[in-house]
Design goal:
The structure holds 2 protein chains of 2 kinds. Chain A is of the alpha/beta class. Chain A has helices at about 30-40, 65, 75-80, 85-95, 110-120, 130-140, 150-165; strands at about 15-20, 25, 30, 50-55, 70-75, 100-105, 125. Chain A has one domain (about 15-165): Cobalamin-binding domain (Rossmann fold), CATH 3.40.50.280. In chain A, about 40% of the residues lie in helices and about 20% in strands. In chain A, the strands form 2 sheets. Chain A has a 5-stranded parallel β-sheet. In chain A, strands 2-3 form a two-stranded antiparallel sheet. Chain A is globular, with a radius of gyration of 15 Å. Helix content of chain B is about 75%, strand content about 0%. Chain B has helices spanning about 1-25, 30-50, 60-85, 95-125, 135-160, 165-180, 190-210, 215-230, 235-245, 250-270. Chain B has 2 domains: about 20-160, no CATH class; about 165-270. Classes of the chains: A alpha/beta, B mainly alpha. The interface between A and B is medium-sized, with 27 and 22 residues.
C-alpha cells in the first residue's frame, strides 16, 4: 500500500502511475501503451519512472485506486461523451482527485475539443496525440525529482494521497 | 567460438540436471567415493576368495532370502529417495516419473560395479555357464544394497544441509497467503499490517530459497530474486497490479512481471505439495 514520504530520499527514485480510462485501449489511432512510451521518452533524468495503469471501467467506484495516479488520461468518447459512468462524471464535476494531479481528456479533433473544454474548464483537453504527450510531460517533468523543486512536488502529491487514504 | 561455448554450457547444465536426480545438488563426490569403495570391495573379494560364485547347500532357501533382502533394500531406497527429493527446490524432481528416474540412476550406478565385477572377475574365468539363478539373485541384491547405501548417504547430507520439509511448506504457504494483502480494504489498518507481513514473508522466502542446490532450484532462486528486485522498485499501485493481473488492456511490463510471478507461484505450489 502507498506509504508516506518523510524526506527526499524516500522520493527518489519515484514511480508514477498514469491512469488510463478506456475501453478500446487506443486513441488517435495509436495504442495507449505506445503513447505512454512517447511520454516516457520525454521524461528528464532517471529519477522518475512511469507506468501506465489501466483501471477497469466497471470499478470506477473504487476511488481509492484512482487517486493513486497523478495523471488521469480519459478517453472522452468512450468514457464521458454519453455519460455512461456516473462515478467518473461525479469525480470531474466535484474535482474529487488530488490537487497535485493532472486530468487530460482525449478528444479527437480541435472542434470537439473546444466543446469539451467549455464543459470541463478545469481539466486539460488534448485534441491530438501530440497535445496529450505534451500535457502529460509538462506535468510529469514538473513533479520530477530530477527537476528543480520536483522532489517537493512528488512528496506533496504522495502525502496528499496518503492523507486522503488515511495512511498514518 | 561463442557457439561452442554456449553448447558446452548447455551440455554442462544438462549433465548437472541429470546428476541432480542422484545427488540432489550435493555434488558427485560422495557418489564417486562410494563407487570407488565398491570397486575396492570387488577387487579385495577377488584377491582373497577362492571362488567368486555363490556356493551354498540349499540354493532355493538362499534365493528366497536374497530376494526378500532385495525387497527390503528396495523399500529403503524408495523411502529415502522419495523423502530426499522433497527437501530440494526442484519442482520436477517432485514428480513420480522423476522419482523413478532417481531410483533407476542409483540402480545403474551400483549395477555398473556389480557388472564390472562379474565381467572382470568371473566371466573371464568361468564363463556364463558357471552362473546359477542364485548368483543372479545375489547380484541383484548387491545392486539394490549398494543403491540403498548411496541413497542413505545422500539423504544424510540433505538432512544436514537442507531446511526441513515443514519449514519449506510453512514458509511457502505463509508467503502465498501473504499475497492477499492486495484484497484488504485500502483505508483499513489491516491493509498496512498485511503489507508489512507480506514484506516479512518475502524475506523469509528469499532466505529459504538461498538453500537451493540443484540446477532447477538455483534457477527458481534466481528467478525469484530477479522478479523481487523489479517488484520492489515499483509503486504500490503497480505492485498490486502485478499480483492481481490485468484485464483486456495491459501494461506489458507489469503483465510480464505478473506472468513471472505466476510461474514462480506454480513452482512453489508444487514444492509445498499443493499440486503435482
Amino acid at each position: 500500500m502507498i506509504t508516506r514520504y518523510s524526506d527526499s530520499n524516500d522520493a527518489v527514485p519515484h514511480e508514477e502511475n498514469l491512469l488510463i480510462l478506456t475501453m478500446s485501449g487506443r486513441c488517435y489511432g495509436h495504442d495507449f501503451s505506445d503513447i505512454v512510451q512517447d511520454i516516457r521518452d520525454g521524461i528528464q533524468g532517471d529519477k522518475l519512472l512511469i507506468q501506465e495503469y489501466f483501471h477497469s471501467l466497471d470499478d470506477l467506484a473504487n476511488r481509492n485506486k484512482l487517486i493513486q495516479n497523478s495523471v488521469w488520461i480519459i478517453h472522452w468518447q468512450e468514457c464521458l461523451e454519453d455519460e455512461p459512468y456516473p462515478y467518473l462524471k461525479h469525480y470531474l464535476d466535484t474535482r474529487s482527485y488530488p490537487n497535485e494531479g493532472e486530468i487530460v481528456l482525449c478528444v479527437d479533433g480541435p472542434a470537439k475539443a473546444e466543446e469539451v473544454r467549455s464543459r470541463y474548464p478545469c481539466v486539460a483537453v488534448a485534441p491530438s496525440k501530440q497535445y496529450l504527450v505534451a500535457y502529460a510531460q509538462g506535468h510529469l517533468n514538473t513533479a520530477n525529482p530530477a527537476c528543480s523543486g520536483g522532489t517537493e512536488k512528488v512528496i506533496a502529491w504522495n502525502n496528499e494521497v496518503c492523507d486522503d487514504l488515511g495512511v498514518p | 567460438m561463442p557457439g561452442i561455448t554456449l553448447l558446452h554450457m548447455v551440455d554442462q547444465s544438462t549433465v548437472q540436471r541429470l546428476l541432480d536426480h542422484v545427488t540432489f545438488g550435493h555434488g558427485a563426490h560422495f557418489l564417486l567415493e562410494v563407487l570407488l569403495l565398491q570397486f575396492a570391495g570387488v577387487f579385495l573379494t577377488f584377491q582373497f576368495s577362492n571362488s567368486l560364485l555363490v556356493q551354498v547347500s540349499n540354493p532355493d532357501l538362499f534365493t528366497q532370502a536374497y530376494a526378500a533382502a532385495s525387497i527390503v533394500f528396495i523399500g529403503i531406497l524408495l523411502l529415502f529417495t522419495a523423502k530426499m527429493r522433497k527437501r530440494t527446490f526442484s519442482s520436477t524432481l517432485y514428480t513420480r516419473f522423476r522419482l523413478i528416474v532417481s531410483i533407476f540412476g542409483y540402480l545403474v550406478a551400483s549395477g555398473v560395479i556389480i557388472l564390472f565385477g562379474y565381467i572382470l572377475l568371473i566371466l573371464t574365468i568361468t564363463g556364463w555357464t558357471g552362473l546359477s539363478r542364485l548368483d543372479y539373485v545375489f547380484s541383484a541384491m548387491l545392486t539394490v544394497l549398494f543403491a540403498a547405501l548411496l541413497a542413505v548417504g545422500y539423504h544424510a547430507r540433505v538432512v544436514d544441509e537442507q531446511p526441513s520439509r515443514s519449514t519449506i511448506v510453512g514458509t511457502i504457504t505463509a508467503w502465498q497467503e501473504s499475497l492477499s494483502w492486495v484484497d484488504e480494504d485500502e483505508r483499513s489498518h489491516a491493509k498496512q499490517e498485511a503489507y508489512d507481513e507480506f514484506n516479512d514473508r518475502m524475506e523469509d522466502l528469499s532466505d529459504l530459497l538461498s538453500h537451493a542446490k540443484t540446477v532447477e532450484g538455483k534457477q527458481l532462486q534466481s528467478d525469484f530474486e530477479d522478479w523481487r528486485e523489479h517488484f520492489d522498485a515499483h509503486s504500490e499501485l503497480s505492485k498490486e497490479t502485478i499480483i492481481r493481473g490485468q484485464g483486456e488492456n495491459k501494461n506489458e511490463q507489469l503483465a510480464e512481471e505478473h506472468q513471472e510471478l505466476q510461474s514462480i507461484r506454480r513452482r512453489l505450489r508444487i514444492l509445498a505439495g499443493e499440486q503435482e
